[in-house]
Each structure stands twice: as structure tokens, then as C-alpha cells.
Design a protein that fits this description.
With 185 residues, the protein is α/β, with parallel strands linked by helices. It has a single domain, classed as 2-Layer Sandwich (archaeoglobus fulgidus dsm 4304 fold), CATH 3.30.2170.10. The protein has 4 helices and 7 strands; from the N terminus they run βββαβαβββαα. The protein has a 7-stranded mixed sheet, with helices on both faces. β6 and β7 form a beta hairpin. It is globular.
Length: 185
Amino acid sequence: MGPGKHPIHGLCVAVDVHYLRSGGARAAAVVANDASFAQVLTERTAVVDQVAPYRPGEFYRRELPPLRAVVGGIAGLGLLMVDGYADLDPDGRPGLGARAHAEFGIPVIGVAKTGFRTATHAVPVLRGTSARPVFVTAAGMRRADAAELVRLMAGRFRLPDALRRADQLARTGPQAALQPSHHPG
């Protein structure tokens, strides 16, 4: 958002990871110069040949290596947005976002599509015409500020366009053209 209550200094990056049948993962990053993601500067993907198996409570062990691969080399990071939770409960049990905050040293916004039973502190945010909220958490910034940024991000659908695009790139690779969603919620 830049000026105002939520100053972000540096590039804003939305990321997502897709797991490949081969046992690896493809990570995608959508980079903008402000937190609205209204103008995308660049997109990038990275493939990691092998990732850790899924273990409950240790999702970050699987997700961080691909995120490192796609975010590494982007100079001037100011904000990272992940598909998921920053923290998993009101006591601050770290989720992917908190681990990414510790790893990269920048504020991280977690945007989750589904509620998590212990994440009672997550801020529900309605976007577009959707009757279903996304659930916003944050590490390195106030949750209320993160929720306001998410509410104002580009896109008319429930999920901000930058996260939708990162998801699409992670699933299909860089040749994917952004297609309009047929699912507004």
C-alpha cells in the first residue's frame, strides 16, 4: 500500500508451491512494487527436485526449500504473501508464514482459503462479491494491517489476483496465461 498506515518498503511478492508427482515441487513468485499488486513487475518459477514428505505440524519443512529457490535472488524484498497461515493459534505457534518471516527477515502475510480450528485469531476478510472470507494472519506486522492490505489488493475475486496467479504458475509453469476465474468465491 505504500504511504499511510501500512508502509511497506521494498518489493512485494506473492508465492505458492505445487508438489510434483516426481517428488519435487514447483514454486512460483509474483512480484510487484507495492502491496496492492495492481502492477506486476515480474513472475518467476523454480523447481526443486526433492522435498521432504508431509508431516503434520511440520509443513514448513516441505514448503520452505521451494520458497527459498523462487525468492532467492530477488533483491529488495519488503513483503511476502503466502497461501496459508503465518501462525496457527493465538499463542503464536509458528506456521509457514512465521517460518518464512524468520528465514527472510521481512513481514509475511498468510492468506488461507479455509479456516483452521486453532487459528481463532485469524482475521476473516471478505473480498469482491464472495460471501466466504479468506483468513488473514501475519508475522512481522499487525494482523489488522495485513487484513486491510489483503482487502485492498488487486482482484475482484475472493483470493487476491497475485495469489491466484502464483497458484496457477506453480501448478502449470511459466507458460500459463492468466485465465479469468469462473469461481468468484
